[in-house]
């Protein structure tokens, strides 16, 4: 259907202080935002996730929702991002994807969603000589997005290469003052002798990158009941069947080791991003 305002030209006339000017029609803006949303990489599972549909049960969930709404309202004048951390199933990814969609639709932001292990896998694949895509082809949208969601930070196996790669992403966005939203099951523990230190931001990212995140993001620990467990129990009650126990890890179903040689520098003319990694198997200690 042709727009009744611009009649398909994508431009409309407006009066600014008595002077007629042309500006983009709202129908064109709608097309651009829809395209940006389709290219944002938000998983289909969260296609219906919205800030309005997030149902907080705890004070920390209510605070996380408040900060997510505040982020969208303040964008782009406020570039400070968010770190949602806490146990699985409390709605961290729901909030992050809903926030991203709102920023794209309401503020015209260029935004992307990347599951952290998937991002690292895409970078590793560029080390294969049969793959034409370069590191910068993968990382350019990650580094240049107005809003970037990094989901499930900390699930990947830690290594020097992981430190360097994630450090590059965080540091580049820090220097460019671009908003970054992170979800993670990690804990913020800095005592190396503490039992939880192995699952901490310090262990996974290193001191320097953690420090960057503390400065560039507001942190909120989200606590609550596991939504997935609640849904399983509810469905079991409806069907009269007990939910199945999760599959146990055995030697037969453990994932294999990743391979590929890491190159030290991201090759892109005029770009000064560097991993400072001399070689070795990417993603291993």
How does this structure look, described?
The protein is built from nine helices and seven strands, in the order ββααβαβααβαβααβα. With 285 residues, it is α/β, with parallel strands linked by helices. It has a five-stranded parallel β-sheet, sandwiched between helices. The radius of gyration is 22 Å and the shape is globular.
Strand order of the largest sheet: 4-5-6-3-7
Listing every helix as H and every strand as E from the N terminus to the C terminus, the arrangement reads: EEHHEHEHHEHEHHEH
Q: End-to-end span in angstroms?
A: 58 Å
Tell me the radius of gyration: 22 Å
Low-confidence stretches: 247-265, 276-285
The overall pLDDT, averaged over residues, is: 82
Overall 3D form: globular
Beta fraction:
5-15%
Helix content: 25-40%
Q: Count the E strands.
A: 7
Largest sheet: 5 strands, parallel
Structural class: alpha/beta
Number of helices: 9
Key terms for this structure?
285 residues, alpha/beta, 5-stranded parallel sheet, two-stranded antiparallel sheet, 9 helices
Layout of helices and strands:
Blueprint: E1 11-16, E2 19-24, H1 26-38, H2 59-74, E3 81-85, H3 92-107, E4 111-115, H4 116-125, H5 135-144, E5 147-153, H6 160-176, E6 179-184, H7 201-205, H8 207-216, E7 217-221, H9 227-239
Parallel strand pairs: 3-6, 3-7, 4-5, 5-6
Antiparallel strand pairs: 1-2
Outline of the structure:
With 285 residues, the chain is an alpha/beta fold. The protein has helices at 26-38, 59-74, 92-107, 116-125, 135-144, 160-176, 201-205, 207-216, 227-239; strands at residues 11-16, 19-24, 81-85, 111-115, 147-153, 179-184, 217-221.
């Amino acid at each position: 259907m042709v727009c009744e305002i611009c009649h398909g030209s994508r431009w409309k006339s407006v009066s600014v202080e008595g002077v007629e000017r042309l500006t983009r029609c709202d129908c064109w803006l709608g097309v651009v935002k829809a395209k940006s949303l389709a290219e944002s990489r938000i998983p289909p599972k969260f296609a219906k996730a919205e800030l309005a549909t997030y149902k907080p049960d705890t004070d920390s969930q209510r605070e996380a929702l408040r900060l997510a709404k505040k982020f969208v309202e303040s964008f782009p004048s406020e570039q400070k991002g968010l770190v949602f951390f806490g146990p699985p199933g409390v709605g961290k990814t729901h909030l992050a994807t809903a926030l991203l969609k709102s920023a794209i639709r309401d503020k015209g932001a260029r935004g992307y969603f990347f599951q952290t292990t998937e991002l690292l896998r895409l970078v590793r694949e560029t080390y294969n000589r049969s793959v034409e895509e370069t590191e910068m082809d993968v990382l350019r949208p990650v580094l240049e997005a107005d809003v970037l969601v990094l989901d499930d930070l900390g699930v990947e196996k830690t290594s020097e290469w992981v430190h360097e790669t994630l450090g590059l992403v965080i540091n580049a966005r820090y220097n460019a003052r671009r908003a970054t939203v992170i979800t993670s099951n990690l804990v913020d523990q800095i005592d190396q002798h503490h039992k939880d230190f192995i699952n901490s931001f310090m262990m996974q990212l290193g001191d320097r990158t953690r420090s960057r995140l503390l400065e560039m993001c507001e942190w909120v620990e989200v606590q609550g009941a596991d939504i997935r467990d609640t849904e399983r129990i509810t469905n079991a009650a409806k069907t009269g069947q007990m939910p199945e126990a999760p599959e146990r890890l055995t030697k037969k179903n453990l994932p294999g080791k990743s391979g590929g040689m890491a190159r030290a520098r991201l090759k892109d003319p005029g770009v000064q991003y560097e991993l400072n990694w001399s070689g070795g198997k990417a993603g291993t200690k």
